[in-house]
Amino acid sequence: MKKLVIATIAALLLTGCAAAPAEKIELVRLATHDSFYISDEQIAEFEKSTGYQLEVIALGDTGSLTNKLVLTQNAPIADVVYGIDNTFASVALENNVVQDLKQVNYGDVCFNYDIQWFEQNNIQPPTSWRDLGQNKYKDLVVIPNPNLSSPGMAFLITTYAGFETKAEVFAYWRSLRDNGLKTTSSWTEAYFTDFTRYGGTRPIVLSYASSPAAEIKEGKPQSKALLKECFRQYEYAGLVEGGANSAGGQALIDFMLAPSFQESLPWNMFVYPNPGTAIPTEFEQFAPPAESVIGGDQDFAADRERWLTDWSDVFDN
Predict the structure, then answer these.
(1) Of 16, 26, 49, 197, which is least surrounded by CB within 10 A?
(2) What pairing do the DSSP bridges indicate for beta strands 182-184 and 27-32?
C-alpha cells in the first residue's frame, strides 16, 4: 500500500498535479469492402451499447480485402472483418487470417440490365447469361474481374457449373471476349461507372438480384435482374487472427447478427438478411431472390487457382 501511495504522488508531481485522464475508450477496427455501409445511428447504437469506438477500414472489393489481410497477417490492421464471402473464405481460412466466420447475409449474383436503355434502342434484353455472347449484345456487358472481385469470381464459378465440359466453358468465355466484354477492378466501378444507369456505356452489368431495388423511380423499377442460374453468395464476419481487440471484435459480430442490424441490411447494402428476418415489400416486388442458383457445390478451395489460370488463358492472351 505504501509503495502504491508513493507511486501515485510521484505520478502527480510529474504531471504537474494534473487530474487523472479519463478512461480510454477501446477501439474496434473493422476491415471491410468498399460496399459496406453502416449508418451514423447504428454506429452510435453499437458504441453506446458496448463502450467500444468503431473504426471502419475499407479495402476495396472482396478479393482485395482478403488479399490485404493475408499480406498483413504478421501485423494485423484490424480486429474483425466483414465481407469475406463463400468464394474467398477458403483463402482466408487456409492462410489463418481469421479465427472463425459467421454468416451475416446473402445475395444472389446475376446480371442486371437497364430497362429504359433497351426500350429506347429497340433491342430485346437477354433472358439468360448464356445469351451474352450474341452479336446484338456486343460491347454492352461489363463485369468485375474475378481475380479481384467476389461477384466476378461468382460468375466464373457459375459458368463452370453451367456447362458439362471445360471446352464448353472456354467456348462461352471466348464468345464473351470476342463480343467486347469489359472487366473492371471492382463491382463498384462496374456498376457506378460503366453501367448506363449511372452515365456509363454498358446497359448489362454483373450485380445482384437485389440491385433493382436501388433503381426504383416513381414506384417503377429501372433495372431488372436475370433470376435464373444465379450464384448464391454468403457474406461473413469473423475475428482477425492476432487482432488487438478480440473482445471488441466479437461484440461487433454479435451486433451484426442482432435484429436491428439485420433489418437494416436490405436498404443499407442491398443484400438479404439471414433467414428469419423479413425483407421490405419493394424487395419482394422488384428485387426478390433468384429463382434458381447453381455453383454452390463447386470446390472453391481446390479449383480456384485453376479457374483463374483458365480465365487468364482466354482473356489475357
Answers:
(1) 16
(2) unpaired
CA proximity to 69, closest of 86, 54, 88, 53: 88
Distance CA 293, CA 306 (A): 22
- Residue 208: pLDDT over 90: yes
For residue range 276-295, list pLDDT tens digits in order.
999 999 999 999 999 999 99
* Closest of 184, 196, 63, 24 to residue 121, by C-alpha: 196
Note whether 267 and 306 are same-domain residues.
Answer: no
- Specify whether 28 is located in the same domain as 140: no
Residue 200 and residue 238 in one domain: no
> So what's the pLDDT on residue 4?
35
Under 8 Å between Cβ of 98 and 31: no
Average pLDDT score, the chain: 91
* Residues 254 and 295 placed together within one structural domain of the fold: no
Query: Which residue in 274, 236, 184 sits closest to 32, CA to CA?
Result: 236
List Cα–Cα distances, 108 to 111, 127, 260, 274, 317, in angstroms. 10, 16, 23, 13, 30
Pair (146, 242) in one structural domain: no
pLDDT of residue 280: 95
Is 19's pLDDT higher than 60? no
> Grid coordinates 435464373 are at which residue?
228
- Checking if the pLDDT of 9 tops 70, the result is no
What does the DSSP 8-state code read for residue 290?
Answer: P
Same domain, 125 and 248: no
125 in Cβ contact with 224 (< 8 Å): yes
**Strands, DSSP E only, in the chain?**
27-32, 53-58, 80-85, 102-114, 141-144, 182-184, 204-208, 216-217, 220-221, 223-225, 231-239, 272-273
Residue 258 is part of which domain span? 2-106+233-285
Please indicate, yes or no, whether residues 197 and 61 belong to a single structural domain of this protein: no
